[in-house]
Amino acid sequence: MSELFLLAQVAGRGVAIAASQVDSVVDIGEVTAIPCAAPWVRGLAALRSRVVTVVDTAAALGLPLARRGSSGGGGAARAVISLVDGHYYALLMDELEDVGPFERRSMSSGVALTDRWERAAGGWVERDGEPLLVLDPAGLLGGAMDAAA
Amino acid sequence: MDDLLPEFIAETRETLEALSGEIVAWEADPADRARLDAIFRFVHTVKGSCGFLDLPRLARLSHAAEDALAAVRSGDRQPDTALVNAVLGVVDRIGELVEAIDAGVALDSAADDLLVAALSPDAGVREPEAPAAPAPVEPAPQPQGGRAAARSVRLGVELLDRMMSGMSDMVLARNELARRLREGAPDPRAEAALERLSVTVAEMRDTVTRTRMQKIDALFSALPRMVRDTAAQLAKQVTLVVEGSDVELDREMIEVMRDPLVHIIRNAIDHGVEAPRVRRAAGKREAGRVTVRARQSGNRILVEVSDDGAGIDVDRLIDKARRVGLVDPVRAAAMGEAARLDLIFSPGLSSRDQVSEVSGRGVGMDVVRSNVEAIGGRVTLSNRPGRGLTIIMEVPLTLSILSTIVVGVEGQRFALARQSVEEIVSLRAESVRVDRLGDANVAAVRGQRLPLLWLHEVLSLPRPYSRPQSARLLVIVSTRDGAFALGVDQVIDSEELVVKPAAPPVMACGLYAGQMLPDSGRPMLLLDGAGIAAAAGLRFALSADADAEESQAEARAAVQALLFTDLDGCRRAVPLGAVDRVETVDAGAVRLSGGRARLTVGDALVPLRAVRPPDEGRPVTLLRLTDGQSELAYAIAEPADIVDLPASLAPPAAGSPYAGVAVIGGEPVEVLDLLRVFADEGAVRPTAAAPPERVCLLGPDPSGWTDLFLRQLLEGAGYRCATRLAPGEEAAVALAFDQTDALPAEVPLVRLRREPGGGDGVYRYDRDALLAAVADHMGAECANGRRAAA
């Protein structure tokens, strides 16, 4: 049974996000910093009349903070808006590629993921022979928060 | 059919709530036909509905109750205690069954038989198949149990919630639109349209907010029953008085307040109201009285529960706290009354020794407080040992819209809840000083020392080296444990904003209470005062300091005074209440006549006082003073400022025309002696000082003369004055123009007279006679208390 997935690039890796978990795809403009928050929490942004928490997806996965012009809240960045536990998050992506139906497979044994990736992974899909990790927003945030604690 | 059942459940539930008060009232007065009818109608309606909804058990119960009540209605039976209890039992059972149907669970039916049996006049005699009950007269019983029919529809709370959040979004969308319009070229037509939209949106927001409002009666209607049951359980007699049930409140608030209120009332009955025997011995009525009162004050709702019981035994409370290890003896000794009383809110502490079925498990007041504080409210106590306790819960009108103060630091904006901000002072003000104490900062604001935190440090915002210190203002933030000063760069605005909870990663910082989107379109974080204090490691001991500051604030609201430069160049002040207006008149209006300066106003002459004659031929600035009856002008050089008078004045030299010297802004300022200015000359020196617990009670006076003029004279003479007696205070004498209800009859009254010459009482400007009369009543013991310095 195939599901719709959104394919994107995070820190040079391809990932897939279930379309059912994507509220919308937007360009994030100005970001209000949140002093004292974890480094992967970029800040708050207004989306129409809604406030979203902007998450540096790569940093949330434990990768080094992306060095980008937008880190200070300058230029636009692409993000996937996802609703997790009643709150809207904007997950920053390097690039958004495609939407298409894929078949979700469970993680096969023998693939050793480190802790945060493990929590964030919701299986994998195959695109033209290339395996792509399915990114689960709730797991991603949960893993990042637990790591911070 | 499927639609009818939920409708029936909702209706029955609602009627049950309204009914519980009726039943108790009926029990108190079984002859009350209207109550009986209301209850009868309820069971009758339930019976009728059960018939076509096919709910046999409910039908049987309601039928039995209806039979019994019909007999009472026709006069065949007397409503005795057994019957009332049985009817109550059935009504309760109906409630339980309805809840069970709603939840879809089964309920044991064994109890039903007992309840039905209990209804019969004497079990066994009554035939199982009683003759048909007298047919109800009303052909279509009112579904609302007799309440006035209102044009209304039933709506799900969820729908209202969605409407409310939609409304919030609409407000924000309007704000964004306004911002976009400002960015572009101004177009008057677009602006007019926006203006119209703004007005409509504001009205809509009001309306939608109101749909979420519910009369607090929804919370109060269940109380009579609860009080009755609780009191009966404890073998006490309690009269419940409920006031202000028509005050409206956000329905969510009502839900949050339900448990705290029930808990407080149970406490009042269990701990507060004494057993009838004890009450009799103490000279009280046997039946205790519990008063529940709701009122609105601005955008806050106050719910007050007071009892006339024993109050809190503070010594025993302290004792217990020491035994439990909550406070050490040293600190306990240093604690003030309010801080001691506050211990009642400590987890695991109850003022009662034995645990009763009703309360006293020591899980209570701490939960009450945290529940109320969770919705932005607070709980305050007023203890009258031996005479009762009053607990006041104060909550905001609605949950989601908060009045905030926006502060700026390092170019970023943050909001603080308005209710948590006590005061904002400039760091440059003379009454403010900042010191380093070890590695901590301490601010002294008008002599009161507070821990100081710099917001940029709390938030770890980098400060450029070029300007290590750019904080210019101190915001005094009060938290539940204590107050601290927060240094910020600027205070930008105050705004009413919709607060939404922030996402968990944001809340994890512990510094924020929520997020909001102001007109600027840039999201803003709401700072959490208590969180900031905790993050910075501030610990507020239950200290005597905080107490002193509180009691000072309570003692008397600061008197405002007009500060001015007098004709001789000195700074002087006069209580603002006595100043009618400040005006400048032509030199020609001031005349010397009859040996004194007078001011001509139209045809009338107003006496003029001045420290020296005004300059000839120049316009004169005047303070027009009034005592509510006569007028007087006082010539000055120029008015300077309006200031708060300090609570105590340095006494003046003997014979000085001033009431005393106040230090204002570091400068000594003479305060005009109003009494002397208004009275003719005639110096009286203060003669006696009363022990502080003996108070001069000042009678109510709409012109404010007593509070303003008389207070000055009496306090100058060393007496303590009050317009209202605080708990525990005793008045030695009352002074008033008329005897009124506001003055306790047992306090001797000194009548004041407005006119000089003969008549009853003492002429109000006769200093000697006034002081003599007061000294008379203060009694002989005051002779020892003569003020040495005078």
Oligomer: heterodimer
CATH class of chain A, named: Mainly Beta
Tell how many strands the DSSP assignment of chain B holds.
Answer: 34
Element order of chain A: H for helix, E for strand: EEEEEHEEEHEEH
Strand percent estimate of chain A: over 45%
Widest sheet: strand ordering of chain A: 8-1-2-10-9
Distance between the termini of chain B: 89 Å
Tally the helices of chain A: what do you get? 3
C-alpha Rg of chain B (nearest Å): 34 Å
SS-based class of chain A: mainly beta
- Second CATH tier, the architecture of chain A: Beta Barrel
Largest sheet of chain A: 5 strands, mixed
> Structural class from helices and strands of chain B?
alpha/beta
Low-confidence region ranges of chain B = 123-149, 353-363, 542-556, 681-692, 780-790
Give the helix proportion of chain B (percent range).
25-40%
Q: What coarse outline of chain B follows from CA principal-axis ratios?
A: globular
Biggest β-sheet: strands ordered side by side in the sheet of chain B: 10-14-15-13-12-11
Cα distance, first to last residue of chain A? Answer: 38 Å
Commentary on this structure:
The complex is a heterodimer of chains A (149) and B (790). With 149 residues, chain A is mainly beta. Chain A has one domain: CheA-289, Domain 4 (OB fold (Dihydrolipoamide Acetyltransferase, E2P), Beta Barrel). Chain A is built from 3 helices and 10 strands. Chain A has a 5-stranded mixed β-sheet. Chain A has a 5-stranded mixed β-sheet with strand order 3-6-7-5-4. In chain A, β9 (121-127) and β10 (130-135) form a beta hairpin. Chain A starts with a strand and ends with a helix. With 790 residues, chain B is of the alpha/beta class. Chain B is built from 22 helices and 34 strands. In chain B, a hairpin with a 5-residue loop joins β19 and β20 (571-575). In chain B, α3 (56-73) runs parallel beside α5. The A-B interface holds A 30, 32-38, 40-41, 44-46, 48-51, 53, 55, 85, 87-89, 141, 144-145, 148-149 and B 168-173, 175-176, 412, 459-461, 500-506, 508-509, 511-512, 515-517, 521-525, 535.
